[in-house]
Amino acid sequence: MTYHRLIEITPATHGVDIDLVYATPRNLTGKPIYRAAHCLLLEPAEAALRRAVQLARRIGTTLRIFDAYRPPQAQQVLWDFLPDPTYIADLGRGSNHSRGTALDLTLVDANGEALDMGTGFDAMTVESEHFHAGLPELIQRNRMLLLGVMHAAGFMHIKSEWWHYELPGSLALPVIDNSESGPLRLM
């Protein structure tokens, strides 16, 4: 079954904290990539996110989303800035963000403070790997908490980025170009 409907994710509808960094200059390019901050996911990813939200609540945390659906044009901007397939999906393969099935996120505590993950979001370094050796125990524990929540909700991780999760089998889905008709616009 193929899903093509993108669903908007908001704090009010999904109980998440949203900080879409690509709508701000606080990302690896140093400039906004999106004009407007709209958080969107494909239907099955949105359902898995709802499960993750409930699981995170059980351990006293909230999910903070940094990115979700990303138009292919935004993926091109990222690739042009950092053409390294370790961190940015090759344009020929396409990003699972551009399929609406991937999201970048972290956990925040009851005070709204992000748990220490050892690096910031979009830190394209070896220390950003999920299981990077030599990180302090607290950071390993925090990463494992996020990993457990997301895996239990049905997502899988990639090796190079502690913040990135996607639905298994995403590569079988088409890339969605929502840049012209949807609420997400590129600069």
TrEMBL record:
<feature type="binding site">
    <location>
        <position position="104"/>
    </location>
    <ligand>
        <name>Zn(2+)</name>
    </ligand>
</feature>
<feature type="binding site">
    <location>
        <position position="164"/>
    </location>
    <ligand>
        <name>Zn(2+)</name>
    </ligand>
</feature>
<feature type="site" description="Transition state stabilizer">
    <location>
        <position position="70"/>
    </location>
</feature>
<feature type="active site" description="Proton donor/acceptor">
    <location>
        <position position="161"/>
    </location>
</feature>
<keyword id="KW-0479">Metal-binding</keyword>
<keyword id="KW-0482">Metalloprotease</keyword>
<feature type="binding site">
    <location>
        <position position="97"/>
    </location>
    <ligand>
        <name>Zn(2+)</name>
    </ligand>
</feature>
<keyword id="KW-0862">Zinc</keyword>
<comment type="function">
    <text>Catalyzes hydrolysis of the D-alanyl-D-alanine dipeptide.</text>
</comment>
<keyword id="KW-0645">Protease</keyword>
<keyword id="KW-0224">Dipeptidase</keyword>
<protein>
    <recommendedName>
        <fullName>D-alanyl-D-alanine dipeptidase</fullName>
        <ecNumber>3.4.13.22</ecNumber>
    </recommendedName>
</protein>
<keyword id="KW-0378">Hydrolase</keyword>
<dbReference type="GO" id="GO:0160237">
    <property type="term" value="F:D-Ala-D-Ala dipeptidase activity"/>
</dbReference>
<dbReference type="InterPro" id="IPR000755">
    <property type="entry name" value="A_A_dipeptidase"/>
</dbReference>
<dbReference type="InterPro" id="IPR009045">
    <property type="entry name" value="Zn_M74/Hedgehog-like"/>
</dbReference>
<keyword id="KW-0961">Cell wall biogenesis/degradation</keyword>
<comment type="similarity">
    <text>Belongs to the peptidase M15D family.</text>
</comment>
<dbReference type="Pfam" id="PF01427">
    <property type="entry name" value="Peptidase_M15"/>
</dbReference>
